[in-house]
């Protein structure tokens, strides 16, 4: 597919200026048709640059834009200019005020438009984009709305953090819920929770941890006693949620901290990648136990999460080295163990984790350095994933020098995307089981090829 | 109080030493029997106290007995059994006798595990097989002698320094009429192309599916892999151990002395070393004069000192990907199967 036309780039106004343009256009309704078209094309090009990810700016502007031009004809007119059509797609699902006629026009443009959106990297179009929170459908609890915003802005990013935050928010939702007449809590509560869940998922694709926790919650809700007074049933559910957080996340973390910590010996050099809450705990725990070791924190753009780990570890008094991924090769020979966290773990033993982990694991394997993954069993996913391509997310596009979490609004950062330049930042990658030595879980240290026996182990636990 | 504690400690060790005298019993079984005896002797009044007493006894054994890995496997197995034992008996004394009986019954049954394994290996030993084994292992001996009844086999066995237990294997096999040759530990690669498969016993089988065995097994497995020969490990199920070594140095037997370099202050004493060297070179000159072809026995001066010996490991760890199959009384397992069995066995 040919890249977008170059002319658009030259006339492309900065997206920040979009609002001004809108204002101008409104005031210039009396222009000639040709002038108007030219202006509109400019505007479209600007939005093409701003692309799908851009937020409410487009959202608010959309109706104006649509109202202005003779919609069906103009949207076909710039057909040869492929890049120009991109904006249609982001507009379509979001703006609810678009008239039916406009909708038709937009949908006519879909096949073309969705192709355009991906430009040169069309094959990555399916990756979940970090997207702004859409307008709420149905009753969304304020806590959920806030949480969705935090998810979308990567204020809460880790698998554990997201799961705990979700469950805690659900506790509030459950407490504020009243069963409507002529139905029971066990049958109706889930229909009340479903839109909340989809609202969260709209903000960011659901993590495996959240999926597992929500499945458990559904099970508990459907199993709750019909005859129980409402408040008691709600309290019981909240208790179940608390127990889940305690048993599967907090206590599991402590057990892993102990087990993995015992693998750290005096004089060891531990290498870790990016930042995992559980790895942080393991390292701090081993340090508290008086083990004398040093840590190499490997990090990479765009999120530079390792910086935070670095500051925590060095504050605790652990000797640290910080380097970026390209420098890994020069230090790997000094490393005695690689310790990484996980987003989820699959039944074939592959580990889905922050993009770059696979690279670290493979290099370590090549140098016979043991690779140990710390992972609670609730991150276990029955599914099998064969590559990091079929399912992935896109990381927020980070500024080169900004720290994480993002300090600038995301719209400002999308500046880096240009019509013939697409920035691709997959959030996760898949580490094959062959490059993993062991997975430390709360049920013990398990070799990756026996991960499928986790449910067996848990069956005994429950 | 401290005195009585010490007394009890030495008592546990003495019991263990007495039990291990039995040629048939391997360390894990001896450990189980020792612990059953300590149940008999203990005056614990509750389950909690009993388990604690057992843990203490196990700790003492681990500390006092060198090379504690397989012993530890037995202790863990028995303590897990005691903890999970359903106590339906009315009185605690009854429960205790019940536990002791169960322990002894298990140990008695466990002796027959080796026959089961020997039977299992039979299908993998073809007539006219040439087998390479390492050191001395009761279960391998049983398997070889069992196979000898129906099939013609010949065996290469390594010398297995420093304890030289390979000679023991050689003696027993020759006595049984099996052709057997002792090879040097350093000749494993030389002999590998002539053998059909490698069969070794084990100190413990660990959670990764790997193997802990007398030092030299690992290199044997690596060479077998390189030569595409199957590497079979024989292990009774009480040797399955909940341990996950990440490397050789992650084994519980590893200590700072192993592989350490001699202290530097030894260097500035050249006279001693110098005279040592001259003696050695003198010897070699003399030997060269005598014969070029035959390998003369090493002169006594060339032997390793005890101090040098102590810098060497007694066991090593073999990675699961080097092992073809693990034969045990619970079945013939792949290394992955072992780890799945272990995860299932010890979970919860």
UniProtKB/TrEMBL annotation, chain A:
Cell compartments where the protein resides: Cytoplasm, Cytosol
Assembly: Component of the translation initiation factor 2B (eIF2B) complex which is a heterodecamer of two sets of five different subunits: alpha, beta, gamma, delta and epsilon. Subunits alpha, beta and delta comprise a regulatory subcomplex and subunits epsilon and gamma comprise a catalytic subcomplex. Within the complex, the hexameric regulatory complex resides at the center, with the two heterodimeric catalytic subcomplexes bound on opposite sides.
InterPro entries: IF-2B-related, IF_2B-like_C, NagB/RpiA_transferase-like
Keyword annotations from UniProtKB, A to Z: Cytoplasm, Initiation factor, Protein biosynthesis
GO molecular function list: translation initiation factor activity
Biased segments, Basic and acidic residues type: 32-44
Region described as Disordered: 1-111
The family this protein is said to belong to: Belongs to the eIF-2B alpha/beta/delta subunits family.
Name the UniProt record assigns to this protein: Translation initiation factor eIF2B subunit delta
Matching Pfam families: IF-2B
Signal peptide interval: none
UniProtKB/TrEMBL annotation, chain B:
Main location per the UniProt record: cytoplasm
Alphabetical keyword list: Cytoplasm, Initiation factor, Protein biosynthesis, Transferase
Location of this chain's protein in the cell: Cytoplasm, Cytosol
InterPro entries reported for this sequence: eIF2B_alpha/beta/delta, elF-2B_alpha_N, IF-2B-related, IF_2B-like_C, NagB/RpiA_transferase-like
Single GO MF annotation: guanyl-nucleotide exchange factor activity
Keyword check for Transferase: yes
GO CC annotations on file: cytosol; eukaryotic translation initiation factor 2B complex
Cross-referenced Pfam families: IF-2B
UniProt record similarity statement: Belongs to the eIF-2B alpha/beta/delta subunits family.
Subunit structure: Component of the translation initiation factor 2B (eIF2B) complex which is a heterodecamer of two sets of five different subunits: alpha, beta, gamma, delta and epsilon. Subunits alpha, beta and delta comprise a regulatory subcomplex and subunits epsilon and gamma comprise a catalytic subcomplex. Within the complex, the hexameric regulatory complex resides at the center, with the two heterodimeric catalytic subcomplexes bound on opposite sides.
Name the record gives this protein: Translation initiation factor eIF2B subunit alpha
Organism listed in the record: Daedalea quercina L-15889
